[in-house]
Amino acid sequence: MSANLFSIAEEPDTPDAEAGRHLFAQNSEFLKGVVAMDGLPPADRLEVCFAGRSNVGKSTLINALTGRKGLARASNTPGRTQEINFFTLADLYLVDLPGYGYAKAPVKVVEKWQRLLKAYLSGRATLRRVFLLIDSRHGVKEVDQEIMKLLNSAAVTFQVVMTKTDKPKSSELDKILQGVREALAKHPAAYPEIILTSSEKGSGISTLRAAIARLASE
């Protein structure tokens, strides 16, 4: 796959933007936190999940999407989320995965939730898409590549969402994006569009909402 295939997602047109706004204007609630596969809720609806390295901004992004500041618990301490957290939104599940990579937790605890993460990603039939969050300041790391390989083998489509795009300078972001494109070109499960977001500034939120609304309507 060519790195040139991975374009930046454009702002949605009015109908798509309205569909995304309408979806996320509906009530979203925390359903449960899961620490083992047998605790997963019934696979009775489409779900999308958010994956990424510890402290990449998953919880903050979910809060920005839903417009509920305290829905997903955000923390400045890497590795605080140690469960698969399920949230309801209309006929969807939004899923916040435990951060992978560095975490301030005992080694055995880290290993346990990494196993849970991999089991979920490779075995959840109703999982439609993984939104793989990459920090715009750091780009793709080896641990991200490992998750991408897992998603390839599980035939689960993933789409990269760049977080914190307000932090690097434009020239630095362009360089990081080129590296991301080159990394994605190695992975057949990668969706050929990258979404740029900043939860702090609100940029890219309507684009991501519209993408999820399209999945929900398919």
Automatic annotation (TrEMBL):
**Signal peptide annotation:** none
EngB-type G domain location is 44-218
Which Pfam families is this protein grouped with?
A: MMR_HSR1
Names of required cofactors: Mg(2+)
InterPro entries in UniProt: G_ENGB_dom, GTP-bd, GTP-bd_ribosome_bio_YsxC, P-loop_NTPase
Note the coiled coil stretches, chain numbering: none
For this UniProt record, give its keywords in alphabetical order, as a comma-separated list. Answer: Cell cycle, Cell division, GTP-binding, Magnesium, Metal-binding, Nucleotide-binding, Septation
Q: GO terms for molecular function, please?
A: GTP binding; metal ion binding
GO biological process terms on file: division septum assembly
Question: What parts of the sequence cross the membrane?
Answer: none
Keyword GTP-binding set for record: yes
Give the UniProt entry's GO cellular component terms.
cytosol
The source's domain of life comes to Bacteria
What protein family is recorded? Answer: Belongs to the TRAFAC class TrmE-Era-EngA-EngB-Septin-like GTPase superfamily. EngB GTPase family.
Q: What does this protein do?
A: Necessary for normal cell division and for the maintenance of normal septation.
Q: What is this protein called?
A: Probable GTP-binding protein EngB
UniProt organism field: Algicella marina
Q: Which gene encodes it?
A: engB
